[in-house]
Amino acid sequence: MIPSFLIDPADRNAPRDPQTGVMRGSEARDLGPEDAPNAVLFVHGFAGAGNNFNDLPERLAAKGWRVRVMRLPGHGTSPRDLENVTADELLSAVVSEATTLREKHTRVVLVGHSMGGALSTLTASRVPVDGIVLGGAYFGMTDRWYYGLKPERWTTLGRAVTRWVYKGRLFTQVNRKEAKKKIVSYTWIPTKSSVMLLELARRVNEPSTLSHVTCPVLMVHSHGDVAASAKAAERAFNAMASTKKELLWFDRSNHHIYWDYDADKVAEAVEGFCEMIEGSDSVVSHAKAVSSGS
Questions:
Q1: Alpha carbon distance 141, 69 (integer Å)
Q2: Are the beta carbons of 283 and 129 closer than 8 angstroms?
Q3: What angle do CA 4, 5, 7 make, to 5 degrees?
Q4: CATH code for 4-293?
Q5: pLDDT digits over 143-179, tens only?
Q6: CA–CA distance from 43 to each of 53, 117, 230 (Å)?
Q7: Which of 185, 189, 194, 198 has its CA nearest to residue 256?
Q8: Each residue of 177-188: pLDDT tens digit?
Q9: Which of 2, 7, 180, 273 has its CA 20 to 30 A from that of 66?
Q10: Separation in Å, CA 143 to CA 147, 152, 156, 165, 290
Q11: How, if at all, do strands 217-221 and 131-135 pair?
């Protein structure tokens, strides 16, 4: 068992905003022109933060997009706050943010990382969005022959043994070593929340979810991703109903694909995808045109 007194200091000592108490790099942010016709919502991953997208939010804001970098429930404060967050709460938060952007902007794109990719996929299956970008998206855990059991099984067993698992920079999955100290995340992970991840994976892989993803999709992943299974991501990608979808492999990188050796190429791919969306009809205007013509 991990003594609880070890948990708080590790994350409490992280740099924080003196007014909100939120960890630096985890804050929700708004960038770019408020009256822009196009908006993008960044959805970070499990125990992660908005800074996990590197400078991509700033790059898109500089191109005239309204950018919203959200902070998921239970994140950026203390891992104790994450412990009791449910899959429904996470999904509701993303749907709410996407819906708010839809009310103000003609086109809305979701950019997700890891669990944020799963949440973006689930959101796209439920509400109108104009495109989704899935970076190192979580559709299942990466398996290794030496695990003995499936990683999902180890996760379930772990909850019965300990309340906390150490994550820390040592286990930050990025190949570019100098990026490790820049990536914001919790040091300790509640095992109860890890089990919640399994529920998200179950939901996002449902045929009823993937068959309702009809917007354009850009998936960027690495075959060497040691956290989010490349095989599971590719299976989900192939099952998505979208007729405009592209899967790009960046194999010099690991799970934190926006920070790794291929970061510039990944950013350029995302920028190109957004430019394509910018030049197309919005999903809402297209739906109205189809409705009026029927």
A1: 25
A2: yes
A3: 70
A4: 3.40.50.1820
A5: 653 443 354 554 555 555 567 787 766 668 999 999 9
A6: 9, 7, 19
A7: 185
A8: 999 999 999 988
A9: 180
A10: 7, 9, 15, 18, 44
A11: parallel
